[in-house]
Design a protein that fits this description.
Blueprint lengths: L5 E5 L2 E2 L5 E5 L2 E5 L7 E9 L3 E11 L25 H20 L20 E9 L2 E7 L6 E4 L1 E2 L2 E2 L8 H16 L14 E9 L2 E8 L7 H10 L4 E7 L11 E6 L4 E5 L2 E5 L9 H16 L4 E6 L5 H6 L5 E6 L2 H13 L6 E5 L2 H14 L4 E6 L8 H10 L3 E6 L2 H11 L3 E9 L9 E8 L1
Parallel strand pairs: 4-6, 13-14, 18-19, 18-21, 19-20, 21-22
Antiparallel strand pairs: 1-5, 2-3, 3-4, 5-6, 7-8, 7-12, 8-9, 10-11, 12-13, 14-15, 16-17, 22-24, 23-24
Helix pairs in contact: 1-9, 2-3, 7-8
Length: about 450
Amino acid sequence: MNKGDILQVEIVGTGMNGEGVAKVDGKVVFVPMTLEGEQVKVQITEDKKAFATAKVIKMLQPSPLRVAPLCPIYFGCGGCEMQHIDYAHQLAIKTNRVADCIRKQCRQDIPVLPTIASPSKWGYRNKVQLPITLVDGKIAVGYFRNGTHKVVPLGKVEDGTLGDCPLHDRAMQEVIDVFLEWANRNDLSVYDETSHRGLLRHFCVRKVGNSFAIVVVVNGNKLPNHNSLIDDFVAHGLSFSLYLSINTDRTNVIYGKCIKTLYGRDTLFDEILGVKVGVSPLSFMQINDGVRDMIYSKVGEIISKSSHSVVFDLFSGVGVMSNIFAKYADKVVGIEIVPDAVRNADTLAKLNGNQDKITNVCGDVTVELPKQIAKYSADKLSDGIVVVDPPRKGCSPEVIDCLLQARPKQIIYVSCNPATLARDMAMLLPKYCVDFVQPYDMFPMTGHVETLVKLTRV
């Protein structure tokens, strides 16, 4: 098998990101935009020792589960991967993916509940981070084509429409369109990562309640004529704050270390399940409000069933989840290593009247968790519940060791990566049993899945 070879293959499985999987002489070939059971003619695009990748040249026999994508640029864009798959089947694929990861890592068949659908499968994204590019001399924004740094543009370009992204709502697209009109009118330069020249790098929008947090990322120290951009947003009746992120480094990291408020408030406020939360440009928030609320409500239900419960919120950040859990628990202890975040968490607790229920501790989880569990166990508040919501890389071995030594009664694990979730579960299983594994479709039309797991001490 060589790059450029044209082959006829049958798709026999589904990969980790929703792509089709074929086998040629025992070698795995990943074929994006295909479905199990399909017969396709493909061209090999990359041949490695362990696997190969290919692109579809011709569809010979489509699957009955194939549907027409809603987005007109779906097959060229890299913003999502599963629009061509019937939505019910997307959910089944995600359930199977979680189950496969757990079976391989834990070496046992642990039941996985069917993936819960998103309340909205379109228009669900509350945040976009779009690289800025040039199309025929006009400034545009979009997503990177899969496997490249070539931007596939969205929105209005030269008075035409390439199609609004169906994963975010029309109000957010209006913000994007206003920015593009302003940027082209002011003839600004666009960043080129090869030469490290040009001004505009990324355009980021987050919807917070009925307002927008808008961030322009630049390779420079100012945004020329930004007051006219503010005027344009105001003229469209938008409620917003505008921020400037200065990023002059040669890096793929989107935001720079410095963020300035050009208009509006440093922090926008919203409510999540009745809890007031402050959102700044760098705050982490789940991207799908409806699924986020379902997960947090389920965690609250678990907490409410434990008598005299103390909840330990690991990596608690600015304390959003701590304040939600305070509605159901006797006591919440947030543990966070960043001092500024801890100070913000204290402020948020006071804003919600939870200063007597929430204690925010500044320190390393592996040091503070055993001390805090020992402290509250001594007060006979023995139903200790640890909630952990790590990044994609999962928990470090040190955190897992800490959990095994601290031995809280329950561990609630929220994961955005089935592979690292399964790895961490395998290390916890000798001392914990799994009560349930519940996937949620936080990211419809993509290969990503969010999973909630409840474990109880043996």
